[in-house]
Amino acid sequence: MRPASLAQTGQCSAGWDAGPLWRALTWCGVAQTTETSLRRTPLYERHAAAGAKLVPFAGWEMPVQYSGIREEHVTVRRDAGVFDVSHMGQVETRGPDALPFLQRMLSNDLRRLPEGGAQYSVMTREDGGVLDDLFTYRLSECVFLTVTNAANHERDLAWLRSHAADFDVDVIDAATQFAMLAVQGPRARSLVHALSDGLTPSRMRCCERTVAGAGTLVCATGYTGEDGVELLLDPTAALEVWDALLAAGAAPVGLGARDTLRLEVCFHLYGNDLSEDRGPIEAGLGWCCREQTGFIGSEAVAAVRANGPAEKLVPFVIDGPGIARQGNPVVGGGVVTSGTFSPCLERGIGMAYVSPERAEPGTRIEIDVRGTVRPAVIERKPLYRKGS
Fold first, then answer.
1. Residue from 246, 174, 189, 239 nearest 219 by CA
2. Helices 69-78 and 21-28: crossing angle, nearest 10°?
3. C-beta neighbour count of 140 within 10 angstroms
């Protein structure tokens, strides 16, 4: 589905203007709150000084873009960008029963998680509805750190604590203990390595390092489809590390490009592609569910796996002009959950829930975009592959 210019150059184009702020926010699904009292990360002053467009997001005042969504997107694909993701939440679980407790709460098999390892999972209700998708890092035998989505942190924390009584475990709100920076792109690892006292960890691993003079948990995870790391550090050190990363050549990147990057590689966004009304099987996340561990909701998830979901989440590419938005109906049944303009494919892309018989790659569908029917084609994941 790539246009000829991309097939010939193998590059993402940087010539697209994001347009008016509200339009850009609509494309990336960022304008989600209207709070008058917004929290700010330790890097707020840096964002404001850099001329970032700051918007409400999940109760925080966050940068949606600096130089422009497309330019920042392309920088991450070609070089290195750094995101302030300090709005994300963290929960520390420690104690003799930390492993069996999290095994009950999270969908994946934490027995497979070594010390210094990272694992993706979902947390579900008894009926299989998804409460959140999370990354968990095993810091030692009995200490785990779980990163939550910003909008879900308080609910996640309450849910975990409500099930902890039968376990010898402490569930600690660690959100104020960390700032979090994501350094992503082909040059991200070498850039961080040059500022640190040791090698960056291999993919899906984490380790403690000193980065730009600050003690840092360096995690080889990310949300862009590119190589890179996420840095968790003391909030008081965030300014120094941020400045060092920019001085070393990383470009600041906002939430707008974070959304277009993740959608090109079909990573889920909670509140769009995942919700309490959807289960992990229909969302295509059965790979991170190990029903045999007995996690909360495992029986419901197993039943859907056995019987087949009523709908499936699939990626699509618009065949022609137009951009589908979240909530746009798929003609004949289904709904768009995420939609944007792809700077690398140079057309509209997205994800949608459709019936299983329409979920095969190559299937043609139509999407009602504000009264205009746009043809689209179901594709395989990911829509963008590195180097393509």
1. 189
2. 50
3. 10
3-state SS class at 238: helix
CA atoms within 13 A on the CB side of 331: 15
Q: How far, in Å, CA of 332 to CA of 60, rounded?
A: 38
- The CA distances from residue 10 to 219, 386, 387, in Å, are 29, 10, 6
Percent of the chain with pLDDT over 70: 90
Query: Helix or strand or coil: residue 34?
Result: coil
Instruction: For residues 110 and 295, give the distance between their C-alpha atoms in angstroms, rounded to a whole number.
Output: 11
pLDDT digits (tens, 9 = 90+) for 33-81: 444 689 999 999 999 999 999 999 999 999 999 999 999 999 999 999 9
Q: Is 322 left (phi over 0), alpha (psi -120 to 50) or beta?
A: left
Residue 304 CA to residue 309 CA, distance in Å, equals 6
> Which part of the chain has CATH 3.30.1360.120?
13-85+177-264
Reported CATH class of domain 13-85+177-264: alpha beta
Judge whether 207 and 116 are in contact, CB under 8 Å.
yes
Is 50 exceeded by the pLDDT of residue 267?
yes
Q: Does the domain formed by 89-170 have CATH 3.30.70.1400?
A: yes
DSSP annotation of 201 = P
Beta bridge partners, 135, equal: 120, 147
Q: Which residue has the higher pLDDT, 387 or 103?
A: 103
128 exposure class (CB count in 10 Å sphere: 0-12, 13-18, 19+) = buried
What pLDDT, in 10s, does the model give residues 74-87?
999 999 999 999 99
Provide the total of helices (H) and of strands (E) in the chain, helices listed first. 10, 18
- In the chain, CATH 3.30.70.1400 sits at 89-170
Q: Give the start-end residues of each E strand in the chain.
A: 53-57, 60-65, 81-84, 89-94, 118-124, 130-140, 143-148, 170-173, 179-184, 206-211, 214-219, 228-233, 251-253, 312-318, 335-342, 347-354, 364-369, 372-378
Q: 240-257, pLDDT tens digit by residue? A: 999 999 999 999 999 999
CA 162, CA 13: separation in Å to the nearest integer? 49
CA distance 195 to 46: 20
Q: Closest Cα partner for 135 from 55, 229, 32?
A: 229
